[in-house]
């Protein structure tokens, strides 16, 4: 369901609960403004960019999530590269001693092949440093002690 159809559904629900149309209108407006980019935290921006950049096509992010084309990314921040059980990494990644922190993730996401020759992550790289920073802020939240 899209955001708009959710807003419409909320409108119908509220209207049918006997609330007046103006409060339903307010909640639809609130649903709209919560998606305004200016209101978003870096991590929330990063979550969106993560799906826009198709990372989510290859990577699940939930605890215990399946490996897809790429490994599950839960808890990847702060960990050595190539540690997900059951994922067939390339030697380039499995044998690297990179720890995924701000600097290494930034370099990797800017230019995966340039940062780690021989890895097989099929992603061209993100040139916009702000977008990378937002994605990294999001990746940091993928841990059980995020909050
Ligand atoms: C086409 C599929 C694909 C896309 C798109 C993709 N990845 Fe990957 N990713 C992979 C694969 C495959 C690996 C493992 C590479 C290897 O073993 O050489 C990987 C590895 C990683 C790793 C290292 C994981 C570890 O356990 O060391 C991180 C972090 C990562 N990807 C983040 C991202 C982010 C963020 C994006 C979006 C900007 C993204 N990936 C987009 C397939 C993908």
From TrEMBL:
Phylogenetic placement of the source organism: Bacteria, Pseudomonadati, Pseudomonadota, Alphaproteobacteria, Parvularculales
Domain Cytochrome c: 41-143
InterPro entries in alphabetical order: Cyt_c-like_dom, Cyt_c-like_dom_sf, Cyt_c_1A/1B
GO molecular function list: electron transfer activity; heme binding; metal ion binding
Signal peptide region: 1-21
UniProtKB keywords: Electron transport, Heme, Iron, Metal-binding, Signal, Transport
Keyword Iron-sulfur: no
The species this protein was found in: Hyphococcus flavus
Protein name: Cytochrome c family protein
